[in-house]
């Protein structure tokens, strides 16, 4: 009886119910875009005060001779009063060792340490990072990858300048070089939207992740918080899980000035990008419950917004209302994305965001489910 009454109520009021759910999804979307993601637009860029505390830059490399040849000189040529660059050669079988020895003769502030390849023992990137941390002589440590290029010689100064007061962690932006392929545009769009999330949430006082291409924290803080010990069983997580466990509003700073960016080469094939994305998604289930809720609510409300929009278009009483709400949400989204692109110096992505906004829901869901069904032991590089 109760079920039949409920069914009858829904049939009699279905347009009101569907319209109400549609409005609810719209409001959630607006809260995210106007209340959270816009923080990266309106938050003032940090100033760059003079700082003289020495810094250690740590780079882990496995068969990265070509990238080191191209990008390491920019890391070694930063305009900063006192810094060292430590490259951890993680079992490379190419010319990485010879290349680093040549660079060391030219740059006295370059230091290296080597992990010998052992076919009987596999390890994640966390071991290489930990060895780099142990080798670091300075408390401020800045992390990036061998295939990353800093935006200029002020990169290190910009990142390090945030270590004032109680700040122990600094989150930076690591983008990708632009190419003509559609895959490249989607990778850069995906990177942009993820950055809008984690940087804006951090600015709002809820830091939940960072990216290993551009992140920094104090060595003393790493040891005080027991480093990676809580998630050693996960191959990924040297950046986002460490931040998720230890970052707070008080101890975390955000740096997104143009001079502080890094750029790296993106995957050139869908398979390569898919494997990389799946590896990154393995850490999501270990996030704090609050962060999982906030990160799930936005795409979930976006999915139902699209579904309900399509349904309401079929009714003559609601199609104009649905079309107007859809256009309004799209206008807000495009404005926020456009200004975020300016802040993060990304180009030629705005028009593609129409297509990528919906495609991201599908591909992320497929990859996440695939990870939950079968997680294989993937190498970090």
Q: Would you write up a description of this structure?
A:
The protein is of the alpha/beta class. It has 2 domains: 2-41 and 289-373, no CATH class; 46-267, Spore Coat Polysaccharide Biosynthesis Protein SpsA, Chain A. The protein is built from 13 helices and 10 strands. The protein has helices at residues 2-37, 39-42, 65-76, 96-106, 125-135, 155-160, 182-203, 219-224, 240-246, 270-281, 289-312, 319-343, 353-373, and strands spanning 55-61, 83-90, 110-115, 140-145, 148-150, 169-171, 174-176, 215-218, 252-254, 262-264. The chain has a 7-stranded mixed beta sheet, with helices on both faces. A 3-stranded mixed beta sheet has the order 5-10-7. Strand 1, helix 3 and strand 2 form a beta-alpha-beta unit. Helix 1 packs parallel to helix 12 (319-343), helix 3 runs parallel beside helix 4 (96-106) and helix 10 packs across helix 13 (353-373). It is elongated, with a radius of gyration of 23 Å.
Q: In summary, what is this structure?
A:
Helix content is 52%, strand content 12%. It contains 13 helices and ten strands.
CATH domain class name of the largest domain = Alpha Beta
Largest sheet: spatial strand order: 3-2-1-4-8-6-9
How many strand units?
10
Element-level helix/strand string: HHEHEHEHEEHEEHEHHEEHHHH
**What ranges have pLDDT less than 50 throughout 5 or more consecutive residues?**
none
Total domain units: 2
Backbone structural class? alpha/beta
Q: What is the straight-line distance between the termini?
A: 60 Å
The CATH topology label of the largest domain is: Spore Coat Polysaccharide Biosynthesis Protein SpsA, Chain A
Indicate the mean pLDDT.
89
Number of helices: 13
CATH H level, superfamily name of the largest domain: Spore Coat Polysaccharide Biosynthesis Protein SpsA, Chain A
Oligomer state equals single chain
Query: Biggest sheet, in brief?
Result: 7 strands, mixed
